[in-house]
Recover the amino acids of this structure.
């Protein structure tokens, strides 16, 4: 049986392992973290296209009950003016809409589902290097001195991917996006928003987003602008009280619930920097490939990073199912995916820029946004959300279908 080492048990990794299993490839999932994380970077929204991709490998049930439905986003200016409302995407046929959930819960649910399906998951193993063996297989080396071999190596190891640099030592590093991220969970309070739906405020000095969970708690995030990349350790050195005072100062001029939400948030406040990866020139070499954030990280503003990672994982497995020669499968996969994911990254960068507009840009944005949104009727972009993968369909690029009947993946 063909074997694969999947590096990274975040979002792309567990889904890739499950999809590969369906394609007849035995995958082992390896992650550097000592165990499934309990608290990793706030929350995210899994869009309908991401849920549909999970459904293609019958794994959407894994996230049932992990979060809550999120149907729309209301956008306001700092003065409180309603700029418009956007849907998070057309509901799936059974009424399923996007869900918002804690990142740790998503990682854990996907990992548990992979384990449940008999996939080996090994935490505490950091990949340090990998090379192609004379027989064509891959030898992977880990920080603890151990090694592993497999027919294929899939790098689902995130934006700081080691696999990306193994494939192409000259790969461009992630690009700094001039926005910081911080968020938290505040006790129940009246924010004026309908439960489950985002309330986004393009404030005079910073961007603020919040939504009310079913238990009434307010989940929020803020994007303070920061032109230059902070020095290593600078944000980690900021205390909760420093963050709180700065955020209160940033949101003081706005007519929004931001200040009361921030003031009432208990616990530690921790901020982090934002990066994206607009175009990684080499996704694969020999029998190694990168997927998810390792290949094309988008700014969180797009709200699509996790969904793209899931789509990648499923599409890669379909390509390997339909093309027994990995080089061909990887090339077909890249043809299927590159333009879509780079379009998402570009859209995310534009959205991030709109959050850091100067006074003139703000005026223009606040005047034009209602017109643009009314033209689309508040509908999300179909090209983005209506991407539904049919697992059983042969992979089709530009009308050239490859029959799944050509056999399960096998190595020469
Ligand atoms: C603030 C913020 C908000 C976001 N909001 C959204 C949102 O609303 N919607 C959305 O879809 N996306 C959102 N995203 C993006 C989303 O979280 C990522 O796109 C997604 O997690 C990518 O999945 P991945 O599996 O490719 O990488 P990751 O989730 O980063 O997983 C990578 C895994 O690889 C492991 N790893 C790394 N290096 C090694 C190594 N050398 N050896 C072994 N293991 C290794 C890591 O421990 C990690 O578990 C947001 C991101 C941020 C930062």
């Amino acid at each position: 049986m063909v074997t694969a080492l999947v590096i990274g048990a975040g979002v792309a990794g567990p889904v890739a392992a499950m999809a590969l299993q369906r394609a007849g490839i035995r995958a082992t999932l390896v992650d550097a973290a000592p165990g499934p994380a309990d608290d990793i970077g706030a929350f995210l929204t899994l869009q309908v296209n991401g849920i549909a991709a999970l459904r293609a490998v019958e794994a959407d049930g894994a996230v049932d009950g992990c979060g809550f439905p999120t149907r729309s986003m209301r956008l306001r200016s700092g003065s409180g003016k309603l700029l418009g409302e956007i849907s998070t995407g057309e509901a799936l046929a059974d009424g399923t809409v996007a869900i918002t959930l804690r990142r740790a819960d998503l990682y854990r649910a996907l990992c548990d589902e992979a384990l449940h399906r008999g996939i080996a998951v090994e935490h505490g193993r950091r990949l340090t290097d990998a090379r192609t063996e004379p027989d064509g297989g891959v030898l992977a080396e880990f920080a603890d001195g151990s090694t592993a071999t497999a027919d294929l190596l899939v790098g689902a190891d995130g934006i700081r991917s080691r696999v990306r640099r193994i494939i192409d030592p000259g790969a461009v590093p992630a690009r700094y996006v001039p926005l910081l991220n911080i968020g938290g969970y505040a006790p129940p309070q009246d924010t004026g928003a309908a439960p489950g739906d985002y309330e986004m405020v393009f404030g005079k000095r910073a961007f603020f987003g919040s939504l009310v969970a079913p238990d009434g708690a307010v989940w929020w995030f803020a994007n303070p602008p920061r032109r230059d990349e902070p020095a290593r350790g600078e944000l980690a050195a900021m205390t909760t009280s420093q963050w709180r005072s700065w955020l209160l100062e940033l949101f003081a001029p706005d007519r929004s619930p931001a200040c009361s939400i921030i003031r009432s948030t208990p616990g530690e406040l921790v901020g982090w920097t934002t990066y994206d990866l607009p175009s990684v020139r080499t996704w694969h070499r020999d029998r190694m490939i990168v997927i998810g954030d390792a290949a094309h990280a988008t700014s969180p503003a797009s709200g699509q990073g996790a969904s793209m990672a899931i789509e990648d994982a499923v599409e890669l497995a379909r390509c390997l199912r339909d093309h027994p020669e990995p080089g061909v499968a990887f090339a077909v996969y890249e043809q299927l995916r590159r333009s879509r994911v780079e379009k998402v990254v570009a859209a995310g960068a534009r959205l991030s820029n709109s959050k850091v507009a100067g006074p003139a840009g703000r005026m223009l944005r606040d005047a034009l946004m209602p017109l643009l949104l009314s033209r689309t009727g508040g509908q999300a972009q179909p090209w983005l959300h209506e991407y539904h993968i049919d697992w059983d369909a042969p992979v089709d690029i530009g009308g050239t279908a490859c029959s799944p009947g050509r056999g399960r993946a096998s190595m020469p």
